[in-house]
Amino acid sequence: MNRKKLIDLTIDALKVFSDTFTLYFCFDLTLLSMSTYPIALSDCTRRDVRNHFQKNIVFYVNIQNELVDLMLSQGVYLRPPQVAIDSEVEFADSITYLNGFFGGSRPLNTAEISNLSRIVHRAQFSKMVFVTFSKLAKEKELKQHFSKGRDGIEKVLQSLQEVLDKENIPISASGDYKISDVDMSPFSDKLMLFFANTCLGIFCFTMISQAMTSSLRTDIVSKLSKISDDMKKSYGLGLILAIKEKWFEQPPQVVNRKV
Predict the structure, then answer these.
(1) How far apart are CA 235 and CA 205, in angstroms?
(2) Which residues is 206 bridged to in the sheet?
(3) Does residue 224 contact residue 208 with C-beta atoms inside 8 Å?
(4) Per-residue pLDDT tens for 235-249?
């Protein structure tokens, strides 16, 4: 095979990720698809286009189920925290329910625990991707960008882990976030930056926005808002790099009618 024709992927390169991490990688891609295809479907009017997105949703639901079953059978599925739930329904009797500062915070509710644990699990995954990409990238500027992404993710983990530790809520973590030292990168710099911008960047905005809208404690909303602001800066730098390298394909746009 002529390697020069393989622009973004080198087929005969050595494996970088472990099999378990590859499972996490595939699972993450299904989560991205499950969040984007329903939105695309709701925006469509043409029957054939709606049918296309509907088929894709069914496809990824099936793939995700297969991946979860496989991860469970291998004992590597990262389960959310298991908590005891009060069977009685209670109504908030004071605005202090929203307070998260000055030591007056209430215990986390189940929605907050679920969203925070989901972000922590994805941050653990994203951190290892950035670590790997920083080692594989050829361009110095890209290496620095991925390294800064790793440092940013570490701050996310520390910020949210602080909340969960205070509540004595344990979060499971993978013991197989491992990478192999290779002389030849299987991925081009362009492909790695695209994945960082799209799969890690855009999808993380979706998760954090969902967490912010369902979190009622002010300290959690404040932390998530700070994380979102930092991510916007990092995502913007990633786009600038893509444009600088002539890798950014403009989305379809209207004809310029200015005289």
Answers:
(1) 10
(2) none
(3) yes
(4) 999 999 999 999 998
The alpha helices in the chain, defined as continuous H runs, are: 19-42, 47-74, 110-136, 140-166, 189-195, 203-214, 218-244
Q: C-alpha angle with apex 204: 199 to 209, nearest 5 degrees?
A: 145
Q: What is the DSSP letter of 168?
A: T
Report the SS3 class of residue 44.
coil
Which DSSP category does 199 fall into?
I
User: pLDDT of 35-92, one tens digit each?
Assistant: 889 989 999 999 999 999 999 999 999 999 999 999 999 998 988 888 777 777 788 7
Distance of CA 146 to the CA centre of its chain: 15
The CATH code belonging to domain 103-247 is 1.20.1260.10
Helix, strand, coil % in the chain, rounded to nearest 5: 65, 0, 35
